[in-house]
């Protein structure tokens, strides 16, 4: 299968993403420049981390209006799998492809740390090779990952199983103390109702080999590959 | 030509850690009268138009589309002829 990795001016995690899906997991992968509008040749789209357009105005706000995002919206509308990581998650929220918003971390600090993510839903195409309740050791690196939405939206997300990952300790306990950014209900990743668009703040592409501290991030890409390859066959 | 002065602020229900931190710092500077601070954004947008109602419609639309995020923010603006 072929991954398309979107590159905005200011994106910085596209090469790590390419390394994870191509170098480690052996799939085709190509970069897509933010002005491109043809996505038909891709089986999945990744919006990687970074600081698109310098994070001016609000993170993700300018990227949302780039030509490629119109194409990503059409791709998602047709059921195409899209995953937004860190800045990519922010772009998906600004675009309205996912609900809510990522605000400044409640302590106002930029945090670059390893986190443990409790898998809350293992029935998605992004988590099907994980087991509900298990933790994934994946780093985060952001100043604006404080997920917020109105009460009705949170209730809907929780009720539908759309909260995919929560910040937890290594044993899987979800506590206010372990919450690294103030996200409501320790939310680290969510999925849309249809199940084909996921956003997460931590970086699975930066946990692709044991050599760099762990390879739990591959769970997400492996799940995508398994599910997508099955539909291609 | 018109000058639009746009203020974007967080909705009252949205937590504002920047505002809280600024309020805390003002307290440390002995501004004991400070009750609270909310941080926001201010834009000056020059609009090349002679039609005030068209300029106003543009400002409203740019606030809704880009300058403010309706999930967490509200906006106000004033338009003056320059």
Q: What do these coordinates show?
A:
The complex is a heterodimer of chains A (233) and B (82). Chain A is of the alpha/beta class and 233 residues long. Chain A has helices spanning 14-24, 67-77, 87-95, 151-159, 218-232, and strands at 2-7, 28-33, 44-47, 82-85, 101-103, 111-119, 135-142, 146-148, 163-168, 187-191, 197-200. Chain A has one domain (2-232): Class I glutamine amidotransferase (GATase) domain (Rossmann fold, 3-Layer(aba) Sandwich). The longest helix of chain A has 15 residues, at 218-232. Chain A is globular. The relative contact order of chain A is 0.18. Chain B has one domain (2-81): 2-Layer Sandwich (Mth169, Chain: A). Chain B contains 2 helices and 3 strands. Chain B has a 3-stranded antiparallel β-sheet with strand order 2-1-3, covered by helices on one side. The model of chain B has no long low-confidence stretch (mean pLDDT 95). Chains A and B meet through loops of A and helix 1 of B. Chain B: Pathway: Purine metabolism; IMP biosynthesis via de novo pathway; 5-amino-1-(5-phospho-D-ribosyl)imidazole from N(2)-formyl-N(1)-(5-phospho-D-ribosyl)glycinamide: step 1/2. Chain B: Its EC number is 6.3.5.3. Chain B: InterPro entries: PurS, PurS-like_sf. Chain B: Pfam families: PurS. Chain B: Belongs to the PurS family.
Outline:
With 233 residues, chain A is of the alpha/beta class. Chain A has helices at 14-24, 67-77, 87-95, 151-159, 218-232, and strands at residues 2-7, 28-33, 44-47, 82-85, 101-103, 111-119, 135-142, 146-148, 163-168, 187-191, 197-200.
């Amino acid at each position: 299968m072929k991954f398309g990795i979107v590159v905005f001016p200011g994106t910085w995690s596209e090469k790590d993403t390419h390394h994870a899906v191509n170098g480690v997991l052996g799939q085709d992968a190509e970069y897509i420049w933010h002005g491109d509008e043809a996505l038909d040749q891709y089986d999945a789209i990744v919006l990687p981390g970074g600081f698109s357009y310098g994070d001016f105005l609000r993170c993700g706000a300018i990227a949302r209006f780039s030509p490629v995002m119109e194409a990503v919206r059409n791709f998602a509308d047709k059921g195409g799998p899209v995953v937004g990581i860190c800045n990519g998650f922010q772009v998906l929220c600004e675009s309205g492809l996912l609900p809510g918003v990522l605000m400044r971390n409640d302590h106002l600090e930029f945090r670059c740390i390893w986190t443990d993510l409790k898998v809350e839903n293992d029935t998605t195409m992004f988590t099907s090779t994980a087991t509900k309740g298990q933790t994934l050791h994946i780093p985060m690196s952001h100043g604006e990952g404080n997920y917020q939405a109105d009460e009705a939206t949170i209730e809907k997300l929780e009720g539908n199983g759309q909260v995919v990952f929560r910040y937890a300790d290594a044993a899987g306990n979800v506590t206010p103390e372990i919450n690294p950014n103030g996200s409501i209900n320790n939310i680290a990743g969510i999925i849309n109702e249809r199940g084909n668009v996921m956003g997460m703040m931590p970086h699975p592409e930066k946990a692709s080999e044991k050599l760099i501290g762990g390879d739990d991030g591959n769970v997400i890409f492996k799940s995508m590959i398994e599910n997508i390859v099955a539909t291609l066959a | 030509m018109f000058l639009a002065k746009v203020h974007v602020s967080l909705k009252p229900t949205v937590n504002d850690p920047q505002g809280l931190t600024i309020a805390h710092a003002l307290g440390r500077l002995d501004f004991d009268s400070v009750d609270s601070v909310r941080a926001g954004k201010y834009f000056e947008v020059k609009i090349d138009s002679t039609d005030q109602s068209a300029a106003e419609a543009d400002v409203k639309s740019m606030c809704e589309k880009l300058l403010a995020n309706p999930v967490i923010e509200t906006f106000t603006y004033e338009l003056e002829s320059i």
